[in-house]
Write a structure and sequence with these properties.
heterodimer, A: Rossmann fold, D-amino Acid Aminotransferase, Chain A, domain 1, Dna Ligase, domain 1, 12 helices, 13 strands, globular, B: eight-stranded mixed sheet, four-stranded antiparallel sheet, 14 strands
Chain lengths: ~325, ~425
């Protein structure tokens, strides 16, 4: 957060030539499992913003952040933090307290989206299909007996099942369980990521990443990105190792499915109260139905991330879009 | 969990909130940095014509002489500077030896567990690693004999035994004097070459250096040494001591790789050994590490839940900890990261997928108070994991009901929203 000095905005800057260049702080890092991904996202964002003339700098969400923001104010903050703090609304609530404008969804909406089971309830109530699920803390299994509870889960949801942490992203801790004898071990390893596990009926189909962005005229959906992991499972390694997953943008689906997917993404964005940008993960089954899985309020922006691919497929560049969002955040008074 | 996920979990280690018992970083700030700084400055200002120039592929002759003095501390008194090849850390030395000796498919014997950096080199050479069990006295000779017999019966050619005899990485144990003799006798009987990797040998807390395997047999042992733990890992100066016939091949291989080891750092090490009280400095290091070892063992004794066991190193950097039955150090890692403590899961130290219940704790870098806090956090993590296992380990999935043909809504069911299929139907 050093003083930029008398920097002249380069040609093509989104900031007018007569103004100082837009000053943005890109928050990345954090103290979560997704730190590495976040730093990669942050680096991409800083690069993209710098290319369009924004004076952007990266900073960790640490004890130096608030004193730094206070000593050297910026026009707006871009949150490229993944995982808790960045996505659960806590950091945004603190930025609200500090009166620092930021891009993205408000704190309360983030808290809702972060809680995957709660978000699924809201999204299902809005008429969007989502695989059946149950979310339970460890204490429930301990108190009622794991065998009895797991027995019920298998009886009601069937197999295969997806076992995932009730919050968190980047597919960390997510497992597909096809055999009942693998279920207890899957629960144990998933509970290492958090105290509540969500078990979801497995839905087979085409995986889609559905990005939504608000360029100033309200939320609009971007072309769906189809995900084809080489290994068959879109886990952490498939997600962040270049070449291990094939992406198609736009997705190879019918116009009707593409339209339904766009509608789902916009519905999710709306009913959860999200702003500026989001990415919904969904599955399209053979019958063309789009099933909501989860939504990310701080979508990955790394080289292998789907949100930038969707922007590109729509003819946008990451830097211009993010700069536009920052400019709008800077002039909109924070709530 | 794949290696990329482990790397991701490790990325938080750089934050000061996290106590890292993971990395094996020497405590270089215990060096007299001003004296080392002016020494290196003089090497450039006064001797730049040599220190900034290319050098010999085999390494600076003066340094090779001094390396022989260092090895004499461990009983290697017959080494000639002509048998020494200076390498970019002993890691390069290990790579050179492996390139010279190993063809794809060859068998290498290594302790169970073994140094992860060595396993990486062996994997790159497409060697097949066979692990040999250890206990508190290091490599078990009977297990070595069995492995050799089994390899011979299977028609496999064992190229060498790779061993870290002193203050093993990661196991922390040391090969006993009695076993050293037995191991050498087995090597003689089976015509076995030994690669003795000895970066920690001078860092003993209780007694003077043990006599090296190489000191017992000059033809059958290739010795790898390093200044990374006795001086500085950042200088990347190590060496190989090998019989002359092997040395020739090593020099050709190193010239192909790096042309020559860096001149400046070689001069720095030689000058350090010539002008600085390096033996006293090693005592400073060992006292520091002893204090940290004590903090680690005392905390483990006081805090770890029953069923956890660990080695008690009398030198070096590492404690090797075994978790209570059924726990998996790699699967437990997210919980540890959330609790702000880091360790290295044991599985990385095995070439065959073993070691799941183990972890390596390094005490070389954190201060004693940080170690105590780190162990406190780790103990809580293990306790929470035990609690989790007590819930799920007894589940007999054989008794589970088969899934019914179609789920039906049950009012007031515990599973809540999962049963709200009717919402979907209404909205569809």
């Amino acid at each position: 957060m050093s003083d930029p000095g008398p920097t002249t905005a380069p040609t093509g800057s989104v900031a007018g030539a007569d103004e100082h260049p837009l000053r943005a702080l890109v928050l990345a890092g954090g103290l979560t499992f997704e730190r590495e991904v976040s730093i990669n996202s942050g680096g991409q964002v800083v690069g993209a913003l710098t290319r369009v003339g924004v004076d952007a700098e990266m900073h960790d969400a640490d004890a130096g952040l608030l004193p730094g923001l206070s000593a050297t104010p910026v026009d707006a903050v871009f949150i490229a933090l993944h995982g808790s703090a960045g996505e659960d609304g806590a950091l945004r609530a603190v930025l609200d307290l500090a009166g620092v404008p930021y891009v993205g969804s408000p704190a309360a909406a983030c808290r809702l989206a972060w809680d995957k089971p709660a978000a699924k309830s809201v999204v299902r109530a809005a008429g969007v299909t989502t695989p059946d699920w149950v979310a339970l803390p460890h204490s429930t299994f301990r108190e009622l007996g794991a065998a009895a509870v797991l027995d019920l889960i298998v009886a009601r949801l069937g197999l295969p099942l997806m076992v995932k942490p009730a919050s968190g992203g980047s597919s960390l801790g997510v497992q597909k369980v096809s055999r009942v004898e693998d279920l207890p071990a899957a629960m144990v390893s998933c509970f290492a990521y958090g105290d509540t596990v969500m078990v979801e009926r497995f839905v087979d189909g085409v995986e889609l990443a559905l990005s939504v962005v608000d360029l100033g005229q309200g939320p609009e959906s971007l072309p769906a990105v189809e995900i084809v992991p080489e290994s068959g499972v879109f886990d952490y390694t498939s997600r962040y190792t270049p070449g291990m997953t094939e992406y198609h943008a736009p997705a190879r689906v019918s116009d009707a499915v593409a339209a339904r997917a766009a509608e789902v993404a916009l519905t999710v964005h709306r009913v959860l109260g999200l702003s500026d940008l989001s990415r919904t993960d969904a599955i399209v089954t053979e019958d063309g139905e789009v099933h909501f899985l989860e939504v990310n309020v701080s979508p990955g922006l790394t080289e292998t991330s789907m949100f930038p691919m969707a922007l590109e497929a729509a003819g946008h560049t990451l830097g211009e879009v993010l700069a536009g969002l920052l400019e709008r955040a800077a002039i909109t008074p924070s709530s | 969990m794949k290696s990329s996920e482990i790397r991701a979990l490790f990325s938080v280690v750089s934050r000061p909130e996290v106590v890292s018992l993971a990395g094996g970083m020497p405590a270089v700030t215990a060096l007299p940095l001003d004296a080392v700084g002016s020494m290196i400055g003089e090497l450039v200002s006064g001797m730049g014509a040599q220190t900034l120039q290319y050098g010999s592929g085999q390494g600076d002759p003066r340094l090779r002489e001094r390396i022989c003095d260092v090895m004499a501390l461990e009983g290697i008194t017959d080494a000639s500077p002509s048998e020494v090849v200076v390498t970019v850390g002993s890691q390069q030395g290990l790579d050179l030896v492996t390139r010279v000796f190993v063809d794809p498919g060859d068998v290498i014997l290594a302790e169970a567990p073994s140094y992860v950096g060595a396993l990486g080199v062996f994997q790159a050479a497409q060697a097949r690693v066979r692990h040999v069990e250890m206990d508190d006295e290091g490599l078990i000779p009977e297990a070595l004999e069995e492995a050799l017999t089994a390899a011979s019966a299977a028609g496999d050619r064992v190229k060498f035994l790779y061993t870290v005899p002193n203050f093993h990485n990661p196991a922390g144990v040391t090969l006993s004097e009695a076993r050293r003799e037995v191991v050498m006798a087995i090597a003689e009987r089976h015509d076995l070459l030994i690669v003795e990797d000895n970066p920690y040998g001078l860092l003993g807390f209780e007694h003077g250096p043990m006599r090296a395997l190489r000191a017992r047999n000059e033809d059958r042992v290739i010795y790898l040494g390093s200044f990374s733990k006795t001086f500085s890992p950042g200088l990347r100066v190590g060496w190989v001591l090998a019989p002359l016939a092997v040395r020739e091949k090593l020099v050709l291989a190193t010239e192909a790789q790096v042309l020559c080891p860096p001149s400046l750092t070689q001069y720095a090490v030689a000058r350090y050994l010539d002008t600085q009280p390096w033996r006293e400095q090693i005592k400073v290091f060992t006292e520091l590490y002893r204090e940290r070892r004590d903090a680690t063992l005392e905390s483990l004794d006081a805090l770890m839940p029953p069923g956890t066991t660990w080695t008690r190193p009398d030198g070096g950097f590492y404690v090797w900890l075994k978790l209570p039955h059924g726990l998996d150090a790699k699967l437990m890692q997210p919980r540890a990261v959330a609790a702000h403590v880091a360790y290295v899961p044991g599985i990385g130290f095995y070439a065959d997928g073993g070691g799941r219940e183990y972890m390596r704790l390094s005490y070389c870098y954190p201060e004693p108070h940080q170690i105590r806090e780190g162990v406190r956090r780790l103990a809580r993590v293990v306790e929470a994991e035990l609690d989790l296992h007590s819930t799920f380990d007894t589940v007999d999935t054989g008794t589970f009901r088969a899934a019914p043909p179609a789920p039906r809504p049950v009012p007031g069911s515990l599973t809540g929203p999962a049963n709200r299929d009717q919402t979907e139907d209404v909205q569809a």
